[in-house]
């Protein structure tokens, strides 16, 4: 939220052209440098995840078949939640506000889904998602950039499924069901809501946030050993969560464009501008 007033202040503090704004150019260069650093971290993430999963499984003193069965039930429950949200709830809201076929729109977003599943990062998928939404010709470039850049850090649909499900799973596996009453459920609701707007859009960030959620809901109960199940399955949860989050942002962008955007005029302006751009050497 600090970025919005900072951007306005930077724009108002300079009277000349934006290209000559030294502070703006400095921040752009810092963003580029940080993006390169994030890309380097993403390339090394698979190796770290492998060691994390191996350590988690070896720590828990139980049979391999038990681990697989419990992890399978957990994954099935999570998949059911995100699929219901992605294929039923969001398309229903899409049709309710736009009166258009949501599944035809989803077909055009497949490249963004594939990229999100592969890289497991909403932030890394952002440029691809913006380009795909714009290429549908149902959203202008400016609208896609504005809504997607604002929505990626604060609109985490999958977190609303992830945190409550994992908390109930951990409580059940550790025998702490009797400690979760109405007050704890109310706290869990609000913490999950805040977590869906505060979780970093980078790989494996939900694991760290889940520990915070546990300590908030059950502050006197230590984190159970069954947490290793979630760590072991996180490579699946994280990828599905990323696809769900990107899907939600692209749908909300299209819904807002229905009310506040004119993509036809925007495409005409962009086409005219491209036609007026001189070709080098001609």
Automatic annotation (TrEMBL):
Gene Ontology cellular component annotations, sorted alphabetically: plasma membrane
Molecular function via GO: symporter activity
Pfam family of the protein (one): SDF
Tree of life domain: Eukaryota
Residue stretches spanning the membrane: 34-60, 72-97, 112-134, 146-165, 185-210
Cellular compartment(s): Cell membrane; Membrane
Keywords attached to this entry: Cell membrane, Membrane, Symport, Transmembrane, Transmembrane helix, Transport
Membrane topology: Multi-pass membrane protein
InterPro entries: Na-dicarboxylate_symporter, Na:dicarbo_symporter_sf
PANTHER family tied to this protein: PROTON/GLUTAMATE-ASPARTATE SYMPORTER (PTHR42865), PROTON_GLUTAMATE-ASPARTATE SYMPORTER (PTHR42865:SF7)
Family: Belongs to the dicarboxylate/amino acid:cation symporter (DAACS) (TC 2.A.23) family.
The protein, known as: Amino acid transporter
Natural source organism: Saprolegnia parasitica (strain CBS 223.65)
